[in-house]
Amino acid sequence: MFQFFEWNCPGDGSLWRQLAEKAVEIKNLGSTAVWMPPPYKCIGGGMDTGYGVYDLYDLGEFDQKGSVRTKYGTKDEYIAAVKAVQDAGMHAYVDVVLNHRMGGDETEEVEVEEISQDNRNIVQSPKYKIHAWSKFNFAGRGDKYSKLKWHWYHFNAFGANADAPGENKIYRVVGKNFSGEVCYEYGNFDYLMGADVDTYHPEVREDLFAWGRWIVETAKVDGFRLDAVKHIPHSFYRDWLTHLKEHFSDRELFAVAEYWSGNLEELEGYLAATEGLTRLFDVPLHYRLHEASKAGREFDLSKIFDGSLVQKNPLMAVTFVDNHDSQPGQSLESWVDDWFKPLAYALILLRREGYPVIFYGDYFGNNNEGQKLTSHRKLLDDFLQARAKYTYGDQHDYFDHPNCVGWVWSGDEEHPGSCVVLMSNGDNGTKRMKTYHGKATFRDITGHWIEPVTTDENGEADFHCPGGKVSVWCQV
Ligand code: CA
Questions:
Q1: Of 253, 250, 182, nearest in space to 212 by CA
Q2: Within this chain, do residues 22 and 57 fall inside the same structural domain, yes or no?
Q3: Residue 280 in contact with residue 316, Cβ under 8 Å?
Q4: Domain extent at residue 429
Q5: Which residue, among 388, 376, 458, 464, has the nearest Cα to 428 in the 3D structure?
Q6: Active-site choice (61, 222, 227, 266)
Q7: Residue 303 phi, psi (nearest 5)
Q8: From ligand 1's centre to the CA of 197, what distance in Å?
Q9: Is 286 found in the same domain as 416?
């Protein structure tokens, strides 16, 4: 999967056109799917990255929030980009942000009680009335696609009071409770930001189910990336995905959810609760990669997969190194340092287990002042060529040293030729490894090691990698 955006992509409305132009190039890397950023109108209009949702039905079609287009372009350009992705032979996934809304058009008087930020089970004020930005009129769109106008009773809680601007509080609507089907961080993590959507409300459910059908029919997407699911009752997405898979029984709608937690048990709980309808991003693995990049040689590479979803449940794991949230300056900043990026990508791209994602920022880099991202394009291209040609047959592991680990691919009948991956987070590494085809010559396609290695008649040789790097030895 290719994640075709990073947080600071320019807000010039060009991303959908850029994707349409690059679709074949992305496909040729070996990608089978593209994760596209949220395509609908947000509070920040033409500059919003996509997670401050105002109107799900405005894909850059109506003059709302100061702009017709979104940060990425117009509705027509979005649909054209999806088609270009599919014409190139890939699937297109839409980013689905249903937890909250932002940018209400008018205030309404709402009776609330304040909830403690630190423990969401504690009510810390008497009931009183505020003015919440809870009325969503969608005046630019009118009744097209959906007649529902949102009011205070479609939400659980608000993060702002128009009578006391600047106060950072959680105001829960009197008579509403937070869901028991969410993450228990802070006691209860139903509330994340903005106006928290009450997904149990019948009008909300009806509209969000209808929107699911509408986005699939309108944009012809092949699947979903589900945002912030630890803040949404798990039965909601179980029901939503069941509904859409039944409604579109002739299509295979893929789903991957973002449950942002390093706790494997929580992820497994979510997988069970959603009955296998969605895969999950392997956040625990991301944290292991981040930790390894910070700890240098102190990190035990032989245990890098411990506690990860890909180790426990590889078929349900979508593996990634970094994304738009973990990049520097963002809400979940946990960036994998540049020196470790090659090792991290080898660990997701060159192994059998997991469905790996390449992050736009790691492939293309960016030129943003202060938050520059380094392009690892050359290396990723090398890895992807090796992946396409050599990652077949058996995968034999050598996770037998804290600073130097590797594995060997056997190849198969259609893809003859072994491949050896070896990495070190300490000194230069050398490991005696057994390949599969007797005497043969191997070259390090990363170019780190110039001299080829020749195996003996048992297929064995000493393979090498430089300290802090990864070498990929392919049979020539
Ligand atoms: Ca919520």
A1: 253
A2: yes
A3: yes
A4: 392-475
A5: 464
A6: 227
A7: -110, 15
A8: 6
A9: no
Distance 231 CA to ligand 1 centre (A): 4
CA 75 to chain centre: 23
- Boundary of a domain, candidates 173, 197, 221: 197
CATH for 238: 3.20.20.80
Q: What angle do CA 205, 211, 213 make, to 5 degrees?
A: 110
CA of 198 to the centre of ligand 1 (A): 7
Q: Does the active-site annotation cover 222?
A: no
Q: What is the DSSP string of 289-345?
A: HHHHHHHGGGS-GGGTTTT-HHHH-GGGEEE-S--TTTSTTSTT--PPPGGGHHHHH
Q: At what angle do helices 234-247 and 264-273 cross, to 10 degrees?
A: 40
Distance, in Å, from the CA atom of 110 to the CA atom of 163, rounded to the nearest integer, reads: 12
Ligand 1 centroid vs 150 CA: distance in angstroms?
A: 16
CATH of the domain at 462: 2.60.40.1180
C-beta of residue 89 within 8 angstroms of C-beta of residue 158: no
Helix, strand, coil share (%) of the chain residues, nearest 5: 30, 25, 45
Catalytic residue among 48, 207, 222, 258: 258
Q: Give yes or no: 12 in active site.
A: no
Residue 23's H or E segment, with its range, is helix 15-28
Say yes or no: 398 and 450 in one domain.
Answer: yes
Put the strands of the sheet holding 470-475 in their side by side order. Answer: 395-398, 404-409, 419-424, 470-475, 441-444, 453-454
pLDDT along the chain (476 residues), means of 10: 96 97 98 98 97 98 98 98 98 98 98 98 98 98 98 98 94 97 97 98 98 98 98 98 97 97 98 98 98 98 98 98 94 95 98 98 87 93 96 97 98 94 98 95 96 97 98 96
What is the number of structural domains in the chain?
3
Edge-to-edge, what's the strand order for the sheet holding 223-226?
A: 355-356, 317-319, 279-281, 254-257, 223-226, 91-96, 33-35, 2-3, 358-359
Query: Given this model, what pLDDT does residue 202 score?
Result: 98
